[in-house]
Design brief:
3 helices, 6-stranded mixed beta sheet, about 525 residues, mainly beta
Length: about 525
């Protein structure tokens, strides 16, 4: 039996932000946050800052043992891991305590089970399997943004002066009570986008918050064909039990200003079930399920040749991409990496389509078919050649609109289709020149040998401005429900035609919609020289 202790302290000392206030101009457009505008449009002003010096403390304990039975043909591996995690508060005053979240060993108890069985008793055919429960250690992104490390007050103005360069705003602070002024602009409201979730007077952390948890199950069979080659098949299943996200609502304060308040919760559980009221749908639980069948052939290096080839048939389905949010890869094709505070679950609209139905489907990194092959050959004249080939099916894309600054997939997932199949060939060549006890190794490594230019990302935003819902009590038909209001939410979940709403607003379709905007990296050649001694 083995046991162990792991101590991990994650420290973050940060002081940065915008050196001056930042102005966002909505020329001849309404402010998407307030829905209001002046004669020439709208303006939003902010001065974002980030500061703190904190340490997250994590203590892990584990025990594991291994038993062999039945003439050593069956081996069992059994273990358990327990963790204690303390997540700090960046703010030091007016909060619930030094640590915003404190999980004990019983909250993060993770069993691990595994077996290996020699099917024929000759050591050539092995059946194996494993089960594990895994807990994430929270990154510092959520504590920094939600526990007082970031300050972000957005001041909204209606613009009535065409000379926006003369705004000369005054009184821009990170106080929700401060009403700034800008020349030629009328103040509308302040919005606090970083109200501390662990504030003592309004604690927004679910008291029953549980750590992020995933379960994994694997079974497989491997058979040795020759002393240097083997084939295998493996079935893997990964199931997300729960995650942690900031689930947000826009709250209007008594003075008319607004705060975007975020519950730190497990989506679909506890306080994050009915964030907009019991008359509206409940927040769905986070879903992310991977199932993959992997078939592989391995030829270990012998007689100057090695080969590894595999084919994977898989499915990745759910409503949550994970700690890196590939649903936000609009401009570059790269997922947003803001663990636990991505746009997912920031609002209830995010999880539903235009018919008011929950959106569950193939996630943005789903590639049903993937083939990989690597071949290495060593020539007798000290030259080595390696070739790696990858072929994978495309990834799905879906049409995106926004309501109350919350993006949602109006037609569910995958309505645009998939990107083209991705193919890439990489080549590696080395040659050794020997002189005595030394050797000079010259090499060339070519990535994307054939310089293929496959599209990796498709711009899926139909329009960037919020869809607005008409107020039927207004005879002129021009008045809309307030942005983020309960009436707007009710109209959303009653079902609607997003393109018809867009036409009512005389909106312009984003000219990039449906077009590729990120591509495979071009051919890259690297030359190297090494002295071996």
């Amino acid at each position: 039996m083995k046991g162990g202790v792991q101590i991990e302290n994650l420290k973050n000392n940060v002081l940065d932000g915008e050196q001056n206030y930042r102005v966002t101009l909505y020329w001849n457009r309404a402010n998407p946050l307030t829905g209001t505008r002046g004669k020439y449009g709208a303006v939003r002003v902010r001065q974002f800052t980030r500061s703190g010096d904190v340490t997250s403390k994590n203590l892990g304990l584990f025990l594991q043992d291994s038993w062999s039975t039945a003439r050593d043909r069956l081996t069992l591996n059994i273990g358990v891991r327990a963790e204690q995690e303390k997540i700090p508060s960046y703010a030091t005053e007016g909060v619930t305590g030094h640590y915003a979240v404190n999980w004990g060993f019983g909250d993060k108890l993770a069993p691990r089970l595994g077996f290996s069985y020699d099917v024929r008793g000759d050591g050539r055919t092995k059946a194996y399997g494993s089960y594990g429960r895994f807990y994430d250690i929270m990154k510092m992104e959520l504590p920094r943004g939600s526990f007082g490390g970031e300050k972000w007050i957005d001041a909204s103005f209606d613009l009535n002066n065409p000379d926006y360069l003369s705004l000369n705003c005054q009184g821009i602070t990170n106080s929700i009570a401060q009403r700034p002024t800008c020349n030629g602009a009328t103040f509308v409201q302040n919005v606090d986008f970083r109200h501390p979730a662990n504030a003592a007077d309004l604690n927004l952390i679910d008291p029953k918050l549980k750590p992020m948890q995933q379960e994994e199950f694997t079974v497989g069979l491997q058979h040795e064909l020759t002393p240097t080659s083997a084939v295998g098949v493996r079935l893997s299943r990964k199931h997300l039990v729960r995650t942690i996200e900031d689930t947000g609502v826009l709250v209007t304060l008594p003075d008319g200003s607004q705060e975007e308040q975020f519950f730190i919760a497990n989506p679909g559980e506890g306080v994050a079930q009915h964030i907009l009221g019991s008359d509206l749908p409940s927040m769905p639980r986070a879903k992310r399920d991977y199932t993959g069948l992997d078939i592989e052939f391995i030829r270990r290096f012998a007689h100057r040749l090695s080969l590894h080839a595999s084919y994977v048939y898989s499915q990745l389905k759910g409503n949550y991409s994970g700690l890196a949010n590939s649903d936000e890869a609009v401009g570059t094709g790269n997922a947003r990496t803001s663990p636990n505070v991505n746009r997912a679950f920031d609002g209830l609209f995010n999880l539903f389509n235009a018919q008011g139905k929950p959106v569950v489907g193939k996630l943005a990194t789903d590639r049903p078919h993937q083939f990989k092959a690597s071949v290495v050959y060593s020539f007798p004249f000290s030259t080595n050649v390696g070739v790696h080939q990858y072929v994978g099916s495309g990834t799905p894309f879906q049409t995106e609109f926004s309501v109350a600054n919350i993006p949602f997939f109006a037609n569910g997932r995958g309505d645009i289709g998939r990107s083209p199949w991705l193919k890439q060939t990489d080549l590696n060549l080395t040659h050794d020149i020997r002189f005595g006890a030394y050797a000079l190794q010259l090499g060339v490594n070519v990535l994307n040998l054939f310089d293929t230019k496959t599209a990796l990302n498709i711009h899926d935003v139909y329009r960037s401005e919020n869809l607005r819902f008409p107020d039927p009590s207004d005879a002129t038909g021009k008045k809309n429900f307030g942005v983020g209001s309960h009436q707007e939410a009710q109209a959303f979940f009653n079902g609607f035609d997003p393109k018809a709403l867009c036409a009512r607003q005389k909106c312009f379709v984003d000219p990039l919609y449906g077009k590729a905007n990120a591509f495979q990296s071009p051919r890259e050649v690297r030359l190297s020289a090494r002295l071996i001694f």
